[in-house]
Design goal:
two-stranded antiparallel sheet
Length: 269
């Protein structure tokens, strides 16, 4: 079976599990409970992103990307939990996590996943209109900054939905709170900064190493786009249960991004 088919099968399983969990939470299931289904979801999602990155970037580049993302994510997390820098103030993770220097072991992997999602979604806009990947080359190096900021904004749109629930559920919290569901605004500018640094370093690396896998089916980019949509819809579904209905409205913004992306895909087929 081709890797592409395996990826779509796994994505379908993830979608069913995410929708099922969202419905369960809405009907009273404990959002904080880390059960076998939750762990299976995390493992499947990370595996799918690893496989996808290998299919798109090559194995070597995938390893480099995930290493850069995990290392930089860990570094900024350390600044955040130790000195209150980067994410709007000092914050603390729940003691139920297995941690190193105050940071749960899984957090660097999550940074890698969010960075790769954002990176791939921005890339897909250019793929649909026939631009070559990597996008950045010596002729258009001036595009590096705005593209990296776009990467960061995509990631921030997910965090706008995710953080309020994680804080309310006690997975982590800021010692001085914040105006956005007890989350400081600096957290979101921090997300843009960290993701932009991650993708910026990798895009610069691709200046000298531009080779990616050839003959990659374009619809493989849709898998990441759809996973972005499912992620956002999960939080939109459970928002009323937590009396955060405004988040269901905020979640429309990512769905507009998805809609524009699909429109470009259809138009340039």
């Amino acid at each position: 079976m081709k890797a592409e088919k395996i990826l779509w099968i796994l994505f379908t399983i993830i979608t069913v599990l995410m929708v099922g969990r969202a419905i369960a939470v809405y009907r009273g299931f404990d959002f904080q409970k880390i059960d076998a289904i939750y762990l299976l979801l995390m493992v499947l999602m990370f595996f799918v992103y690893c496989m996808h990155s290998i299919s798109i970037l090559t194995a070597k580049k995938a390893i480099i990307f995930f290493t850069i993302a995990s290392a930089i994510g860990f570094f900024f997390e350390y600044l955040g939990v130790t000195y209150g820098l980067a994410f709007g103030g000092l914050y603390v993770y729940d003691d139920s996590f297995l941690k190193i220097f105050g940071i749960p072991f899984v957090i660097p992997a999550f940074w890698a996943v969010f960075a790769y999602m954002s990176f791939t979604i921005v890339d897909s806009f250019f793929v649909w209109i026939g631009k070559k990947t990597p996008i950045i080359n010596r002729k258009n190096i001036s595009l590096l900054l705005p593209i990296c900021i776009a990467d960061g904004l995509i990631a921030m749109s997910m965090d706008l939905l995710m953080d309020p629930f994680q804080v309310k559920s006690g997975f982590w919290h800021w010692k001085n709170g914040g105006p956005y569901f007890n989350v400081p605004i600096g957290n979101f500018t921090g997300w843009v900064l960290v993701i932009a640094i991650i993708t910026g370093i990798f895009r610069l690396y691709e200046l000298k190493n531009p080779i990616r896998n050839t003959n990659v089916p374009k619809n493989l980019y849709l898998l990441i786009l759809f996973s972005y949509a499912i992620f956002c819809m999960f939080y939109m579904i459970i928002a009323p249960k937590f009396e955060m209905r405004i988040l269901s409205m905020i979640g429309v913004i990512p769905l507009i991004i998805v809609g524009i992306n699909i429109y470009l895909y259809k138009r340039h087929q």
